[in-house]
Structure formats: C-alpha cells, structure tokens
C-alpha cells in the first residue's frame, strides 16, 4: 500500500512555512532587496534629473578615502553613539535598581520615566528644540538661579551634548523596563544568603546582580548601539548636523549626500559602510558574550 503524501510531518512542515512566509517576504522586500540595490547604486553614478545610470565601479568606494569631511563625521558618530550608549545603559540600570523596591508611588515613577518612549520622536524633538533655544525654557530656568545660558543648539561645544541628552531622556525608559524585568527575576534567596555571609550592597550588586542580569545587559547593549547609530530624526530636527559638522553623524551624512546633494551612488556607499559598522559591532558583542554573560558556555 502506497504511503499517503500528506504525512503528519509534511503537514507540520507546511504549517511552519506558512507561518514564517509573511516574515520572509518582509525580509526579502524590505531588507535584502534594498541592500542589493544599495550595492548596485554604490557601483554607479546616478543622475536623477537626467535619468542616467553610469557604471563607475569602485570610484564611490575610493571616494571614501578622499572625503575631507568623513573623519569629522565618523568622530561625531563615535561621540554621539558612545554618549548615548553609556548614559542610556547606566541610567537605565540605576533607575531600574531604584524602582525595583516597594514604596508608595513606585508605579507613578515607573510610568513617568517610561512615558517619553511612547511619544513621537519628531514631537519630542520639536519640544526640546524650543526648550533649548536661546530664549527657551532651559535658559529661563537657569536665569532664575543667576546662570546665563547659551544657545545650546547653535554652540559647537554644547550642541552634541544637547542632542545626546535629548535622545537619552526619551529612550532610557526602554532599558529601564528591561533591567527592571531582569532584576525581578533574580531569586531573593541569593540576596538573603549573601547578607547572612556579611556581604555589603556593593558586593551583592557586583557578585550576584550583575552576573544574573548580564544576558539583559547584552541585549540592551546591542539594541542601544544599533539605535544610536540609526538616530536620524533628532539630528534632522534639532541641528541639521550643525553647527558646522559638530553633530553630523553618519546616518545624517548619508541623507545629505543622497537626497540633498543628489549623489545616490556615494550615499549608497556610505549607507553600506554604516551597515558594516552595525554588523561588526553586533558580531563583536555576540562573540564576547561568552566572556561576560552568565549561563553562556
């Protein structure tokens, strides 16, 4: 007797493929195809107005070495990303530790710190743009205590700091919630045993808390670094990359080259360089997880 074609195993496999098909279509259409087009455009000089696409090979890639602005852009990207990552993770962890306690109003504080996350990025940035102006709310508050504030977004020494702080205040709630969930998963018996042995708060945090929440620390590090490298709206709305190139990060430089200067080929090359940075940093963190993430073999 011939075995039926639609066996249980094949039905289960078909069901699985049907479930992942929408996701696969999304990956192909919105990830693989755009990356493939970016690679193709990076090898061409595309004149949008004339509709001409001229193959230039590696000229756009060679132009990276001759771009006098690129070092400043990469430096601004490193400062912005480093500042956002360090402040976001450290403040998120500190807030989670403080709010992982039972006291009156703890729910209100958790909601207050997380609420900026659900606000539109553009709306949030526009409000902070008004607050940081020369006659804005920040300087008005400083004048009350006798401090003469500056125009935070037009001063090269303060523009990057202002952008970083704006980004951190809005996004720190995500890391706070992730750390809070991780802290609540740490068994209380471990803390009790450590205190019986005479361990102090600092030793308990270093020897028990950090190792047990290290998987969450890895997760927050990855998503925070990727998010910082992709931050665009904050720069576009607050400073437009200025003053000078002080806040021109790589993702905004990609936008300028491709859509303001209409150099699609060079813009695509820069976008691929950004993609490479993100992939390498993520891969590096993933490989280092075995050395500092608890439970990893």
UniProtKB/TrEMBL annotation:
<comment type="similarity">
    <text>Belongs to the binding-protein-dependent transport system permease family.</text>
</comment>
<keyword id="KW-1133">Transmembrane helix</keyword>
<dbReference type="InterPro" id="IPR051393">
    <property type="entry name" value="ABC_transporter_permease"/>
</dbReference>
<dbReference type="InterPro" id="IPR000515">
    <property type="entry name" value="MetI-like"/>
</dbReference>
<keyword id="KW-0813">Transport</keyword>
<feature type="transmembrane region" description="Helical">
    <location>
        <begin position="111"/>
        <end position="131"/>
    </location>
</feature>
<dbReference type="InterPro" id="IPR035906">
    <property type="entry name" value="MetI-like_sf"/>
</dbReference>
<keyword id="KW-1003">Cell membrane</keyword>
<feature type="transmembrane region" description="Helical">
    <location>
        <begin position="264"/>
        <end position="284"/>
    </location>
</feature>
<keyword id="KW-0472">Membrane</keyword>
<feature type="transmembrane region" description="Helical">
    <location>
        <begin position="20"/>
        <end position="43"/>
    </location>
</feature>
<feature type="domain" description="ABC transmembrane type-1">
    <location>
        <begin position="74"/>
        <end position="285"/>
    </location>
</feature>
<feature type="transmembrane region" description="Helical">
    <location>
        <begin position="159"/>
        <end position="183"/>
    </location>
</feature>
<dbReference type="Pfam" id="PF00528">
    <property type="entry name" value="BPD_transp_1"/>
</dbReference>
<protein>
    <submittedName>
        <fullName>Sugar ABC transporter permease</fullName>
    </submittedName>
</protein>
<dbReference type="GO" id="GO:0055085">
    <property type="term" value="P:transmembrane transport"/>
</dbReference>
<dbReference type="GO" id="GO:0005886">
    <property type="term" value="C:plasma membrane"/>
</dbReference>
<keyword id="KW-0812">Transmembrane</keyword>
<feature type="transmembrane region" description="Helical">
    <location>
        <begin position="73"/>
        <end position="99"/>
    </location>
</feature>
